[in-house]
Design goal:
The chain has about 200 residues and is mainly β. It has one helix at about 1-20; strands spanning about 25-40, 50-65, 70-90, 100-120, 125-140, 150-165, 170-185, 185-195, 195-200. Strands 1, 2, 3, 4, 5, 6, 7, 8 and 9 form a nine-stranded antiparallel beta sheet that branches.
Length: about 200
């Protein structure tokens, strides 16, 4: 019984310490971003799928309302040449066949939402559900044509990370988000890894 009471006392003491820690008013982060995507080569699912890696940058700004609650806006740009190819046959044309080649050139995400933080000395843990949009630009090649397809769809990101304080105004960040959107009207879900640096203001 005494051991249990001691554990509760230590946990309560850590909670009080976390609530009395001074937190920055604004945090701005920037860094690297990486994700793996898969996508349909054409709205016709019989055309097959493409896949590949995209990498680029991520940036976010958080306004902290108090020690545990903030509001975050997150932006990301992802670039590369995620590609796939398959034989494509248009509907209602038995003799028409050709090679369909699809390449996702870039994707940009714009999301925002609440962020919940826990401060423990030099370490800050945080989680967030973020909502917004993803804009995707893809090139399609079939039957000698090269149209560029751009779509903007709803985007959901749920994840979090850890900040390690280097000084009053700087920290390093590790962040992992599960995100979901649509590419060519098909649902896509995967993870985004985005380590970076945090700049802190106010407090």
């Amino acid at each position: 019984m005494r051991t249990l009471a001691a554990v509760f006392a230590m946990a309560f003491s850590a909670f009080l310490h976390a609530q009395t820690q001074e937190v920055p008013r604004v945090e701005v982060s920037t860094g690297y971003a990486f994700t793996h995507i898969s996508f349909p080569l054409n709205p016709d699912p019989l055309a097959g799928n493409g896949s590949g890696n995209l990498q680029g940058w991520s940036a976010s700004a958080t306004v902290n309302v108090n020690q545990w609650l903030g509001v975050t806006a997150d932006f990301g740009g992802y670039y590369g040449s995620a590609t796939g190819s398959s034989t494509f046959k248009p509907a209602n044309c038995v003799l028409c066949t050709g090679e369909a080649i699809g390449t996702v050139r870039n994707m940009h995400t714009f999301v925002a939402g609440p962020q919940f933080s826990w401060h423990d000395g030099k370490v800050t843990y945080f989680v967030h559900p973020l909502f917004g949009a993803a804009h995707v630009r893809e090139e399609m090649v079939f039957f000698g044509l090269l149209p560029t397809i751009s779509t903007t769809s709803f985007c959901l990101m749920v994840g979090g990370g850890v900040d390690y304080t280097l000084s009053r105004h700087f920290a390093v960040r590790g962040k992992l988000d599960y995100f979901s959107t649509r590419i060519l009207d098909h649902r896509f879900s995967n993870f985004r890894v985005s380590p970076g640096i945090v700049f802190r203001f106010g407090g």
